[in-house]
Design a protein that fits this description.
Blueprint lengths: L1 H8 L3 H12 L11 H9 L2 E2 L2 E2 L10 H13 L10 E6 L5 E6 L4 E3 L3 E3 L3 H7 L8 H9 L7 E7 L24 E3 L4 H12 L8 E5 L14 E8 L13 H18 L3 H4 E7 L1 H8 L35 E3 L13 H14 L3
Parallel strand pairs: 6-12
Antiparallel strand pairs: 1-2, 3-4, 4-5, 7-10, 7-11, 8-9, 9-10
Subcellular location: Mitochondrion matrix
Protein name: Pyridine nucleotide-disulfide oxidoreductase domain-containing protein 2
Subunit structure: Interacts with COX5B; this interaction may contribute to localize PYROXD2 to the inner face of the inner mitochondrial membrane.
């Protein structure tokens, strides 16, 4: 339990609760849920420029990371086709993957196919079911993809000024504006309470909010004097109580709750908002192909990690289909912007490629 781990190291309840948010981030779990201690470890195990546990912003926004990978690949002679939806994986008579068919009818032939999509999309939608072992299909169907995350992107015409650390008269970003700001995290009991409400199908009345202002470090993201604010919030159930839909009314009601909370910490925040984009779990699934809206392509619980990710006997990136590999967050070691799954999968695929 993360609570026990944090109790051993710290005395301050606000500090423990703030750290506990990394134990439940993206997970439909409370800090009191057994196993969530691993999620905490997962989020502090990396390093940035030699600093262990440090996090960073990507200059130009997260999309710039994809662009950097694309440029590196193109420099090696890779051809990239964007906005080309894949219809299914092509199989030869010997059952091997031989490329992919696109929705416009084009067939792209290759000796290997690596899928960065979720295990569910890769194996349940893009691969002929009759070519897969029944127990494997069953396992993929059973992956717990429950997600509590609603992401809200906000454009504001002034920097939020927090009661705890008011802005200076020149309106320039202060050190705390360049960090991850955690709200409604004064105690672990608040996180547990927020989780309990969502477990019963109701969006949290006092949600856990991680607020980042990337434009405080990267001014090119917004016009002069304006800022973009990224709100990573939970808990919101994928399916609302009584089967209510996540319609415009429900989404705006939840966003208003989040904004009311921020207003209590930073008066004037609501008046500064000039635009907002609300992405509930169903939106994250529809737009980004995240099963259940899960940012990790599947829960990071102990029964879905290590040798069991995405399924027992298939944690080594190879799939039941020869020459088809899984290289995304649904593979070992799981989600997070670290590239480990992709790097490991590439090494396995290269090893096999030399034998073809």
């Amino acid at each position: 339990l993360p609570g026990q781990i944090l109790d051993q190291w710290f005395e301050s309840e606000p500090l423990k609760a703030t750290l506990a948010t990394d134990a439940v981030i993206g997970a439909m779990a409370s800090p009191h849920t057994p196993g969530s201690g691993y999620v905490l470890l997962h989020h502090v195990m990396g390093e940035l420029e030699g600093r262990r546990g440090a996090w960073g912003y990507v200059a130009g926004g997260m999309g710039a990371l994809s662009q950097a990978i694309a440029r590196a690949a193109a420099a090696q002679g890779v051809h990239i086709f964007a906005e080309k939806a894949v219809c299914h994986v092509l199989l030869g008579r010997d059952g091997r993957a031989q490329g992919v068919a696109l929705q416009d009818g084009t067939e792209v032939r290759s000796k290997l196919v690596l899928s960065n999509a979720s295990p569910q999309i890769t194996f349940l939608e893009l691969t002929p079911q009759e070519q897969l072992p029944k127990d494997f299909v069953q396992r993929i169907r059973q992956i717990d993809t429950c997600s509590p995350v609603t992401k809200i992107n906000v454009a504001v015409d002034q920097l939020p000024s927090f009661l705890a650390a008011p802005n200076t008269c020149n309106g320039r970003p202060l050190p705390h504006h360049q960090c991850s700001i955690h709200l409604n995290c004064e105690g672990t009991h608040l996180l547990h309470q927020a989780f309990t409400e969502a477990a019963h199908g109701h969006p949290s009345s006092r949600p856990m909010i991680e607020l980042c202002i990337p434009s405080a470090l990267d001014p090119g993201l917004a016009p002069r004097g304006c800022h973009v604010v990224s709100l990573f919030t939970q808990y919101t159930p994928s399916v609302l109580a009584g089967g209510q839909p996540w319609d415009e009314q429900a989404r705006n009601a939840y966003a208003d709750t989040v904004f009311d909370c921020i207003e209590a910490y930073a008066p004037g925040f609501k008046a500064s908002v000039i635009g907002r984009d609300i992405l509930t779990p169903p939106d994250l699934e529809r737009i980004f192909g995240l099963p259940g809206g899960n940012i990790f392509h599947g829960g990071m619980s102990l029964d879905q990690l290590y040798f069991a990710r995405p399924a027992p006997s298939y944690s080594g990136y190879r799939s039941p289909i020869p020459s088809l590999y899984l290289c995304g967050s649904g593979a070992h070691p799981g989600g997070g912007v670290m590239g480990a799954a992709g790097r490991n999968a590439a090494r396995v695929a290269l090893e096999d490629f030399r034998r073809l």
